[in-house]
Design brief:
The structure holds two protein chains of two kinds. Chain A is an all-beta fold. In chain A, 0% of the residues lie in helices and 48% in strands. Chain B has no helices and nine strands. Chain B has strands at residues 9-12, 18-23, 32-37, 44-47, 61-66, 69-74, 83-91, 95-98, 102-106. In chain B, a hairpin with a 3-residue loop joins β7 (83-91) and β8. The termini of chain B are far apart. Classes of the chains: A mainly beta, B mainly beta.
Chain lengths: 121, 107
C-alpha cells in the first residue's frame, strides 16, 4: 500500500523559504509511471494545486506560484520536495503531497496526511 | 486561467439523492475528478475520469460530465457522506485546477 508522509518546519518567517519533504513508502519515486505533486489548503479554505514533478525532470507549476516554487525528486531517498521562497502570511496552509495515477497527471490517487505550515514572525 | 465553480454548500436528507455540480468552460471536453474531504482529514478520490470509482468507493457515488457541467451524484445519502467535495480538472494552460468546494450537510 502506497504511503506518503510530509515533513518539515511547522513555522516559517515571512520572506524566508518554506521547505517540505514527502517520503514515499510502498512505491518508488524512480518509476517512469508516476508524477508527484504538492497541494495546499489555507485554513478554512479550498484546495490549491502548487505543482507536480516527474523524476526525469518534467514539471508543471501553478501559473501564479511558478516564480517562487521549486519541486524536485531525490530517488536515492525515495522522496520529493517543495521549496517555496519569499513566503508571506498568505502561504499559511496545510500542505499535502500526493501521487498522480500511472501515466497521467489528470488527478491524484494517493495523498499524504498533510502538514500545517504557519508563516509568522 | 481556467476556473471551476461550485456552490459553497448544500444539504440533503438521509436516504435522498445529492447532486453536487461543478461548472467550467467546456468542462465536458475534459475529464473531471471528485474528492471527498472530511474535517481534519486528507482528501480522498471518489471519482475520476468523470464517472469511474476507485476501489473501495461505494456504488452510491456516480458521476457525469457534459457541456459546461460535471455532476457528482450520491444516491441514498448517508450521514457518513457529510463532507466537503471538490471537483478537479486538467487544463492545458492552467494544468491542475480545483473547484472551490461544496460543503454537503446531511440532515
Amino acid at each position: 500500500q502506497l504511503q506518503l508522509q510530509e515533513s518539515g518546519p511547522g513555522l516559517v518567517k515571512p520572506s524566508e523559504t518554506l521547505s517540505l519533504t514527502c517520503t514515499v513508502s510502498g512505491g518508488s519515486t524512480r518509476s517512469n509511471s508516476y508524477h508527484w505533486g504538492w497541494i495546499r489548503q489555507p485554513p478554512g479554505k479550498g484546495l490549491e494545486w502548487i505543482g507536480s514533478v516527474h523524476y526525469r525532470g518534467s514539471t508543471y507549476f501553478h501559473p501564479s506560484l511558478k516564480s517562487r516554487v521549486i519541486i524536485s525528486v531525490d530517488t536515492s531517498k525515495n522522496q520529493f520536495s517543495l521549496n517555496l521562497n519569499s513566503v508571506t502570511v498568505a502561504d499559511t496552509a496545510v500542505y499535502y503531497c500526493a501521487r498522480h495515477p500511472p501515466g497521467s497527471v489528470e488527478y491524484f490517487d494517493y495523498w499524504g496526511q498533510g502538514i500545517l505550515v504557519t508563516v509568522s514572525s | 486561467s481556467y476556473e471551476l465553480t461550485q456552490a459553497p454548500s448544500m444539504s440533503v436528507s438521509p436516504g435522498q439523492t445529492a447532486s453536487i455540480t461543478c461548472s467550467g468552460d467546456k468542462l465536458g471536453d475534459k475529464y473531471a475528478s471528485w474528492y471527498q474531504q472530511k474535517p481534519g482529514q486528507s482528501p480522498v478520490l471518489v471519482l475520476y475520469q468523470d464517472d469511474k470509482r476507485p476501489s473501495g468507493i461505494p456504488e452510491r457515488f456516480s458521476g457525469s460530465n457534459s457541456g459546461n457541467t460535471a455532476t457528482l451524484t450520491i444516491s441514498g445519502t448517508q450521514a457518513m457522506d457529510e463532507a466537503d467535495y471538490y471537483c478537479q480538472a486538467w487544463d492545458s494552460s492552467s494544468f491542475v485546477v480545483f473547484g472551490g468546494g461544496t460543503k454537503l450537510t446531511v440532515l
